[in-house]
């Protein structure tokens, strides 16, 4: 670049930092009233912007808020607003939105080819509106391996944490899990911290002390209202490319449809720094690239999609961190809690827990198992391939008939790091509203399975610890608890009290998702280290689809950080370019 160029780049970074600092001081702490947000039916047939961001989710919101400071930004979200919906906002209603299977649900169910039932977000704020709320950063080693700037990473985390991260109230059941982890040898006890540290810790949460959820959509409070246009219920059908007379394809616009089906086109303004950025998630981003003609040539040809670039790695290396859990009925009442404590082991398993007396409220019509409920597809009483709609319906009915005491207790879960096992994603049709087909190949690699076994063994130590003794029945042996979990919805008197099968088989048969799937547009395969799509110009992918491994114990903090981080870097490049041209 040369000394002159480097100086201007440094100057641009400094300008961006100063610019954003003063704006951040003015960010509102009140409930948002976004003047820039409207339904896509209000969109003009044709419009022009400096940046077009596809997906108002966990990465897209902080990215849009940052880029809006000195540019015109269009943010297109396929779903609606999270605000005013108690099923999203209230901790005690966790799972209600995920169990909603209506066409307008904020959650869209999909079933992987492995047979595990899963969900993807369909609303502003993305997965932060649906998840269990745990907030924790990636490990420093992860940051170094990816090649991120550590200082800017920390600043970007802190930027998000000012609005959406809190210290959870530690009550009796979660405290018992924490102390049981320490007794089980997951040391040291690191207290409360957002940092990823070996041992046991209390992490952050996006639920405040009143049990109200804060999401990535809240980060739009940082936005410059005059620089941002946000359309809801805007389904992007394809990215448009200029090909003729170009050395390689150049992204220059998108086609999207509103809720009535009316077509709209948005184009980039003229300018060398203007870009389209896809932030549609691990399913949506590779799907949109393929629908736009960037993907494996033979696969696109089979769907009659005009090829723009033969990119065989789009949709490859898909992963989902498998989750397995043990349910422990409690002889005494327990608090309603989602993930607050985590044990970070050296063998590659993360131990977490959630509890509640009548997880979703306490009446016979709402009694539930929260993030482990068959209502949201978490069905462990049959192996994955047998989890049919009929099996789910039967499990929900069985759950309604259970005694109240069966809902008093909690789940201790383990999630493996990585994972190493990989799968792939393919189109099923050319409709962007339909789910693609995805295979994760849970436990295909032996090391993943071994980590699950060691995680379950650690959970057993917690259950048998002195710290946790108050919250388990003496007569319930570990094999009984395993069998009870494997035949969920649980019954205090399980019909089969035989000794459990091997822990390897338990892991395979009871595998569930913790919704941390990623991949499909990985760095080094589909995008470069600046998240620019390889082989085309003016197009980036910035979201969890670029991850080789899931960051930290829970990824949402890092995905929000990445949106802010890349927004600052892109803004810095723009300011430096403007300074040079002036």
TrEMBL record:
Top-rank taxon: Eukaryota
InterPro entries: FAD/NAD-bd_sf (IPR036188), GMC_Oxidoreductase-Related (IPR051871), GMC_OxRdtase (IPR012132), GMC_OxRdtase_N (IPR000172), GMC_OxRtase_C (IPR007867)
Entry binding sites for FAD: 236, 515-516, 544, 555-556
Cofactor: FAD
GO molecular function, one term: flavin adenine dinucleotide binding
Keywords recorded for this protein, A-Z: Disulfide bond, FAD, Flavoprotein, Signal
Signal peptide: 1-27
Intrachain S-S bonds: 452-507
Record domain Glucose-methanol-choline oxidoreductase N-terminal: where: 281-295
Entry-linked Pfam families: GMC_oxred_C (PF05199), GMC_oxred_N (PF00732)
Family to which the UniProt record says this protein belongs: Belongs to the GMC oxidoreductase family.
Protein name: Glucose-methanol-choline oxidoreductase N-terminal domain-containing protein
Originating species: Dipteronia dyeriana
